[in-house]
Structure formats: C-alpha cells, structure tokens
Amino acid sequence: MYPSRFPRPRVKIRENVNEAIRAREVRAVFPDGQVEVLPTQQAIRRAQELGLDLILIAPTAEPPVAKAMDYGQWQYEQKKKQHEAKKKQHVIQVKELKFRPNTDDHDYNFKMNHAVRFLAEGNRVKAIVQFRGREIAHTDLGRKLLLRFAEDLAPHGTVEGQPRLEGRNAHVIISPIKKEAKEKSKEKPKQAPTPPAQSPQA
Fold first, then answer.
1. Tens digits of per-residue pLDDT, 15-58?
2. pTM across the whole model
3. Are 66 and 27 in contact (CB under 8 A)?
C-alpha cells in the first residue's frame, strides 16, 4: 500500500477532559452541588449521563478536583479569564526624550508635557542630553538641565539615581509614582479637635 500524499489531519487532544484524566479517582463536582470522591471512570459516566464532560479543574489537589460541565462553556470561561487578565496587565515601557544642552524653554516645556503624560500612563521616562562637537566640554549644562527636569517632574515621578554620562550622552531615568503613594500625598493631616470652651467659674 502506497503512503498517502496528504498528511493526516491532526486530532487536537483535549487535555484533562474525560478519558484524558489519568488520576484513578477524583473529587467530582456536579451541577446540583453534590461533591463526591469517585473512581475516575465512574465520575465520567455520571457526567456523560447528564450530557456533560468531566473536566479536571484542580489537578494538584488530593484527590484531584474534577467538575461536570459543558466543555465548550468551560473553554469560553477560560478565554474570558485570559482576556480580563490581559486587560489588567500593563507592560511598562521606557519612553525616551532627547534634549540638547542649549534646549530653549518652548522645546523644554513641550517635552515636559509629554513626560507627564508618559508617567501618568505608568511608563518610565528616560531624559537624554546629547552633546555634539565641542559641547562635550560643557557637560555641566546637561547635568543642570537633567536635574531641573527631574525636579519639575517630582510631583509625577521619582528619579532613579543621579544623571549619568555615557559617551556623548547624559541621561536620567524617572519612574512613575505608585498610586498608593499618590493617594497618601493627597491626604491632608487631620487636625486635632479643639477642646470645648470652659465656662467661667462663678
């Protein structure tokens, strides 16, 4: 018999479902709320009698926990949970802003506004001062600019160390202030209650 020219379609194996469950017994949870430790094959038959699948939901438990439910519904719930987790997850990025030692106020303020927005979005900001030609002899101007930049951003971020010079660039990194710290800074100290006025003694 000659081999087929076309590869056989791959059958997707459903892991931890019905016969794929390798545990000898499971703690089976049924839709009516009944929970019972049963041999795996018996629990599968019970689930199938209800028109459901037996799905392993806690494989590391002793014994493993399996739930009788519709496999399609379970897949939908898993995808929904993953989607919600991705929405809550925020990838922190490092946003770079480049300056020159003689950057004018208009350009400085323009980039300052960008930095405030980046920090509010939860990203880090890397401010870089680039020195060209003979400007490298005036690194103190770049350092002063970076310190000014960090000071102006103090209400929005915290500086990670002092400005550093690497080659012809000086830089400083600013991280966003955590929400907890912002909320604490907004809280005003409570004033002590004023004692009631004493009535004059007769």
1. 689 999 999 999 999 999 899 999 999 999 999 999 999 999 99
2. 0.49
3. yes
Q: Which of the 8 DSSP states describes residue 199?
A: P
Is the peptide bond prior to 63 cis by the omega test (within 30 degrees of 0)?
A: yes
What stretch(es) of the chain map to CATH 3.30.110.10? Answer: 94-186
74 vs 202, which has greater pLDDT? 74
CATH placement of domain 94-186: 3.30.110.10
Q: What span, in angstroms and rounded, lies between the C-alpha atoms of 37 and 112?
A: 63
Q: Give the tokens for residue 70.
A: 């519709």
Count of other CB atoms within 10 angstroms of residue 114:
13
Q: Which amino acid is at 198?
A: Q
The amino acid at residue 128 is: I
* H helix count then E strand count, the chain: 5, 9
**Both ends of the chain: CA-CA distance in Å?**
122
Which of 15-52 are b and which e, b meaning 16 or more Cβ less than 10 Å from the residue's Cβ? eebbeebebeebbbbbeeeeeeebebeebbebbeeeeb
Task: Classify domain 18-71 at the CATH class level.
Answer: alpha beta
Start and end residues for every CATH 3.10.20.80 domain found in the chain: 18-71
